[in-house]
Amino acid sequence: SEKYALPEVNVGIWQGFVFVNFDAACEPLESFLENLPEHFTHFPLEDRFIAVHVERTMPANWKVTMGAFIEAYHSVVTHPQILPYTGDANSQYDIYGRHSRMITPFAVASPHIGGRNYEQTEILRTILSYRGTDPSAFDVPEGGRARPIAAEATRKRLAASMGVDLSNVCDSLMIDAIEYFVFPNFMPWAAYGSPIQYRFRPDGDDVSSCIMTVMMLMPFNGERPAPAKKQRIPADRPWSDAPQLGGLAAIFEQDTSNLARVQKGLRAAPFSDVTLGEYQEARIRHFHETLDRYLAAES
To answer: Burial of 269 by CB count in 10 Å (0-12 exposed, 13-18 middle, 19+ buried)?
Structure first.
């Protein structure tokens, strides 16, 4: 009977992910997602499988940790090795009602190192080496560009390894970083070359700690492969303990190396405001403004 029934929660499913809301009067997931379902119409994540599933305890609040992954401008200092093939400062940031998107172009050199005049063959070989393709057989012809060649090499590698047809997938979806943010803590990426999914959540009641989840969703042909077993990395161990992350492990180590100091600095600062870049950090500002509106509505 209803008297002895378990408590009920609102549940919605989108792109194979299950969303739970404890508010009995919450709006439907379909309207909460706003324009995101339309963006993913031709990019069904539910038709993929979990090829990598890693969680790590981070030494910072979930909002602080998430802020390290929501913009690309930090690359010039944090990831100097990727500047020859990453248009970090060329990133496009799109702000929606509650959600946002970032598109960072790859196979172009960063403006911070004179990207316009950077040698195209060097760009090509650097990105292919990072993405796991032998670069020695590739050159950019006279007057050509690295992007279409890098995209085609990635397309062929993934098609061969996954047994899927990617011939109609555009170059941007093959090589660029296209990261969406679903408020409050979920980041699905809409790309084949970087099939990453992030989630950030509190670590119990510890406001100086959180749990970061990284998944890689890969396409497949035929029967769905079994999902990868989840690996948990404790806070005192490096990302390289998960070799299945490949080159991302070193990138994540750079991304998170200063989080403990950032957390400590925010709590020690004599002022409560944080200064953010007008455009390059627009998504961080938008997240906090959205969060503030929800918190104010609860009071």
So the answer is: exposed
State pLDDT tens for residues 205-242: 999 999 999 999 988 888 999 999 999 999 999 999 99
- Beta-carbon contacts of 115 under 8 Å, excluding residues fewer than 6 positions away, are 87, 90, 108, 109
d(CA 121, CA 264): 43
Q: How far apart are the first and last CA of the chain?
A: 34
Whole-number Cα distances in Å, 270 to 64, 208, 259, 265? 18, 18, 19, 10
Q: Give the Å distances, CA to CA, from 98 to 36, 128, 177, 179, 248.
A: 10, 35, 20, 15, 28
3-state secondary structure of 206: strand
The count of other CB atoms within 10 Å of the CB of residue 222 is 7
* Number of neighbouring beta carbons within 10 Å of residue 168: 6
Which residues does residue 52 pair with via DSSP β-bridges, in sequence order?
216
The total number of residues shown for the chain amounts to 299
CA distance 131 to 188: 20
pLDDT digits 0-9 by tens, 155-175: 888 888 878 888 888 999 999
Question: What is the rounded CA–CA span in Å between residue 47 and residue 222?
Answer: 11
CB-CB contact of 280 with 100 (8 Å): no
The Cα–Cα gap between 194 and 214 comes to 12
Residue 102 bridge partners (DSSP): 93, 179
